[in-house]
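Following up on my earlier thread - several people asked me to post the actual chain instead of describing it. Fair enough. Here it is, all 374 residues.
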Amino acid sequence: MCGCEFPKPDEAPCTVRGTTGPLTIGPGLRLPPHGIARYIGRYGALLGTFLCLGGIGVIRYRPFRNTDPPLLAEIWRAQPSLRGLMQPMSVAILDRHVLSKPYFDRLGLIVALDDDRPVGFVHAGFGPTTDWQDISIQRGVTCMLMVMPHARHAEIARELLTQSEDYLIRRGAKTLYGGCIEPLNPYYLGLYGGSELPGILAPHEELVNLFSGMGYREVERTIIMHRQTAGFRPVIDRTQMFARKKFRVEMVPDPSADTWWEACTTGLTNRIRFELVPKTGGAAAAVATFWDLEPLASSWGVRAMGLMRMSTVPSERRQGLATLLLGECVRQLQAQGIEQIELQCMAQNEAAIKLYHKHGFAQVDSGIVFLKDV
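Reply from S.P.:
Thanks for posting it. Predicted structure:
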């Protein structure tokens, strides 16, 4: 036998790429202009023998199988070092943070194989509906794309991205995004980026160039910031002294998720919510939620927490409450032995950046969100 595998007619599509271009097998995949496409039915074995005996280097692309997690972990561990890329990857971590999600679709996780050796994968998914209670297929996102060192590295990366796009379009996506960012964040929180998923990390130049070269345009920039808790002192001025007389900070450990989507994406994290409440009683005027940044923090070798979200009631804004709340959060986390605080904001959010600088946060990374209309 030649060793090539071909799908049965009722299986998910599989693409075989040789030096002459891609040969698409199965229904629903478009034919690249430089390739040859044909549905493999009763002539599949004959064509497979031709490909193997003819000396064509074969790269196969197929959907995820239950035996693939060790292969995916191997591909992940072979990636260049990045601050925002968790290492080392294991099957257990991959299962906990990706494969166990209730909306996981094996057809959206596509593996590239050179013979039987894993050389890359791409993972596509979707975000939530407007009420955050279900999956919406209107906007699709290529969540992750990785290729091992290979002589045809660039070619494999391009084909994987094409495979991701094909999957998303077949499912009904009208807009394609490159890189996860809330609410298009179905997978990889805690494995990539920082306190939030940042799009594509800017130092990840290979992926940035790939998306730019395949018709995507930059639509957002994210700023990743952090500070060490050692030596932290809260901001003290007249405004803060007045706010401290009116409000106190209460800590809520392990708060419940507000929506189905939040439960799916953050339910396995250890979270703490801080609420700024009036001393006279009543609803919180400002809220901040942090999480434990695992397993990314462990790969850095520090105890860290990441700011997941912070908000102030509109009627209570411009009273210094965000400054008071953030300062108290850092102080209390420091008292709990947390060594580092991480946060993220949009590059154009000048007010937030000014607030974070005031508390000693400095930029350590950045991300880019890409968009492509179908």
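Residues 1-10, 24-55 have pLDDT under 50 and may be disordered. That should answer part of your original question.
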